[in-house]
Design a protein that fits this description.
mainly alpha; elongated
Length: 184
């Protein structure tokens, strides 16, 4: 069934979509876009908490997805099993399940959404485009992308609940402490 979905997506191919999705997928390569977003946010006092949440979520998705799950399941990519399909990007060398692009993108985008709905909505749209690009480019199975996306969301929620709330409580406590010292 998954190959049927991928072949149906291949029927959508046009020069414009080839260009679009081969470039959109680059945004998810190694999580670089999301790392840059996290670092930029950390550098601003107002958005530092969000930046930490993004980076901790990315770290969690990398450790769980790329280090553990991919090597545990060792699932072959569709482009390995159907080498006759023309690839628009370099043939990936790591395993397929789960999609690291999808996991990292949804982990970062969900972290942004949990803290700022407007930024998060835009990030979630981009994450969805990055995830779909992996199917369009024939380098992931649909379940790789689905599971990667869901696990990325769960990691972000976990990080927000555990790490994020702890960080926020400490910052709020320090703010209160600093303002009480200023009043003395």
């Amino acid at each position: 069934m998954e190959i049927n979905i991928l072949m149906t997506i291949q029927e959508l191919r046009t020069a414009f979509l080839d260009f679009l999705f081969s470039h959109v997928t680059l945004l998810g390569d190694n999580g670089i876009l999301w790392i840059v977003v996290g670092v930029i946010l950390i550098c601003t006092k107002k958005h530092r908490k969000v930046g930490f949440l993004v980076l901790f979520s990315l770290l969690g998705s990398f450790l769980l997805g790329n280090i553990f799950l991919k090597n545990f399941f060792e699932r072959e990519r569709p482009c390995w099993m159907y080498p006759e399909m023309e690839l628009l990007i370099k043939n990936p060398h790591d395993y397929s399940f789960p999609s690291g692009h999808s996991m990292a993108s949804f982990a970062a985008a969900t972290s942004l959404w949990l803290m700022n709905k407007k930024w998060g909505a835009a990030a979630l749209i981009l994450a969805g485009m990055i995830a779909f690009s992996r199917l369009y480019l024939f380098v992931h199975w649909p379940t790789d992308v689905l599971v990667g996306s869901v696990v990325g969301i769960l990691i972000a929620v976990f990080v927000f609940r555990i790490v994020g709330l702890t960080i926020m409580e400490r910052w709020e406590y320090r703010k209160g402490e600093e303002s009480s010292h200023e009043n003395v």
